Amino acid sequence: MGRAKRNPSFFPLELRWVSLTLYPSYILDRNALNFFLESQTMASTELPFYDPAGDETEIFEHAWKNRLPVLIKGPTGCGKTRFVAHMAARLKLPLYTVACHDDLSAADLVGRHLLGDGQTVWCDGPLTRAVREGGICYLDEVVEARKDTTVVLHPLADDRRLLPIERTGELLQAPPGFMLVVSYNPGYQSLMKGLKPSTRQRFVSLRFDFPSATREEAILIGETGIDADFARRLVSIGQSFRALKDRDLEEVASTRLLVYAATLASSGLSPVQSCRAALVESLTDDEETVSALMEIVQATFGF
Ligand SMILES: Nc1ncnc2c1ncn2[C@@H]1O[C@H](COP(=O)(O)OP(=O)(O)O)[C@@H](O)[C@H]1O
Ligand SMILES: [Mg+2]
CA-to-CA distance for 166 and 63, rounded, in angstroms? Predict the structure, then answer.
């Protein structure tokens, strides 16, 4: 099925954190600490398992070749981050991932002066590093970031490909390898927080959604090594839960949660225990809803 070779040892824990020990003598304030912890870079030598839905890998490659930024929209846990990790490895590019939040500012992306031993030292942020190294900077949930980040994203996202660093007076021209990738979940978008048309019209856009049943089974098997029958049952539970969206459940069961359930079960928990902990209790706090969902789980496993 044209699927990339599975890398059984790929787990987020293997991400190589931007090392705090590089700057042992500097005092890190809370923001600086967050800034280090939330930007992750990953060695791109291994190919993370990604099961494609259609032509997204081809479109991404063409966008990169033509120096165009990419926007990925889709619900949480449907494979956006995994896709970007896979593409970075495929294109052999360093990847800087930033989980955006409502306190994330342009300085968090570009860099800041850190204080230590009575002097200040400039420290590049993840966006600047990606530009200098010619890698991918991936801004996850970009709509959450503060509006001042658009000041640095706009000149980088159009054909100028420039990053002005106000604090140091530098103006960086992004090398050919550099690519800006952003993602967001349209379901979480409030009226106030939508991406401005001037921002979104700078990107090539890809729509992601939860995989078809057959593909989701292949993902569960590829990720966790569970057998086909168990994968089929888990996926059918996921689909029954998704049908309850907007009635009993606010959130749908993501592929990520199904992977968690499969992981717990393959480590020795019973299927029912695994589904309760990874799926049901993660989706709702309401006890009646928990009972209703557990009935579906038990019926699926023949209790
Ligand atoms: N197409 C896919 N191929 C392989 N794994 C996938 C795929 N889609 C989802 N997954 C699994 O689901 C998990 C969550 O996906 P992720 O990329 O983190 O979601 P998102 O970034 O959209 O919230 C991944 O860690 C992986 O285990
Ligand atoms: Mg993600």
Answer: 28
